[in-house]
């Protein structure tokens, strides 16, 4: 097995999610003597703390004002908000330069064989881009920059600056996209070049599990924090349609932490008179019970990278109905392992869910096909092997 003695890993995140789960799995399986993990002080540690259980991992924090911090502060303002938004935009790139300098001081005595940036998206956390530049200046070593969500196209007003930053990133980083859709977005929406390595995220396999049926009810599961992007309201609207058209008992369980929209989703469910069909459960580290008692996973996101919840469902022999965004097309084979639906189309979502409620044999067939596809393409061993090969071939 390929081995490096020391790794330095830097991540910036504010909501615990798939990028953190990926990082925990990667760090647990790297053959390393020492891993220094640098995390922003405002990080949601719900998941990432699991990485510190490994004896090789040293958790280190960094604290610096970021654009994300400033925008959170601005969003709390009721007076002169437009002025503060303008001021934040004005400070973004001076702060970027300052952050490069901060990381040069922070990492000046740091030594490693491999440097890894774990970025929730692109550009996403500016600390990730700044740290990559600082590391290259200090060590002349290129950084493995792992991107977990589709790239965002910059506004026209700042495109020249972003073009320059992207060109620098292309020189100082090896970009790794966790699915083809992310690689394509980097290629067509940014200027990071086209030499992106694609390595699918993977998780540890289980043997096919036996469904635990609860009182003959068809159980639908949704996992994800509550915000505009996860779009749980789309599923609530679908529930209203299904309740009117389907006589078979069903129930929806939402599992996830509130990031701003939980109350509005509950309010919508009440307005549509479907609260009796829905349960709300806070963030859970261990989701095994929910996967074992579910008959279907639904994902309604407006934007995604390569969602781990889909892999977890496939591993659990669950069919998946997901919006056709980001890397879900590379996970879900339409009409073979589940259904893909257009984002925002709650009518189509309701139709696809109802077809599985009314045909349990089709749901089981999709679930088994999904498990087989997961076993062939998306296991943890495959992911770790691909990263080890990458590190060995480019360092």
Describe it for me?
The radius of gyration is 22 Å and the shape is globular. α6 links the parallel β5 (143-147) and β6. The mean pLDDT is 90. It has two domains: 6-203 and 379-394, Glycogen Phosphorylase B (Rossmann fold), CATH 3.40.50.2000; 218-377, Rossmann fold, CATH 3.40.50. The chain has 395 residues and is an alpha/beta fold. The strands form two sheets. Strands 3-2-1-4-5-6-7 form a seven-stranded parallel sheet, sandwiched between helices. 45% of the residues lie in helices and 17% in strands.
Strand content: 15-25%
Structural class: alpha/beta
Give the CATH superfamily of the largest domain: Glycogen Phosphorylase B
What sequence of helices (H) and strands (E) makes up the elements?
A: EHEHEHHEHEHEHEEHEHEHEHEHEHHH
Q: Please give the number of β-strands.
A: 13
Main features:
alpha/beta; Rossmann fold; 2 domains; seven-stranded parallel sheet; six-stranded parallel sheet; 45% helix; globular
Helices, strands, pairings?
Blueprint: E1 6-12, H1 18-29, E2 34-40, H2 45-48, E3 57-62, H3 67-75, H4 81-106, E4 114-119, H5 126-139, E5 143-147, H6 159-172, E6 173-177, H7 180-189, E7 197-198, E8 218-223, H8 232-245, E9 250-255, H9 262-271, E10 278-281, H10 288-293, E11 296-299, H11 308-315, E12 320-323, H12 328-331, E13 338-341, H13 346-357, H14 360-377, H15 380-394
Parallel strand pairs: 1-2, 1-4, 2-3, 4-5, 5-6, 6-7, 8-9, 8-11, 9-10, 11-12, 12-13
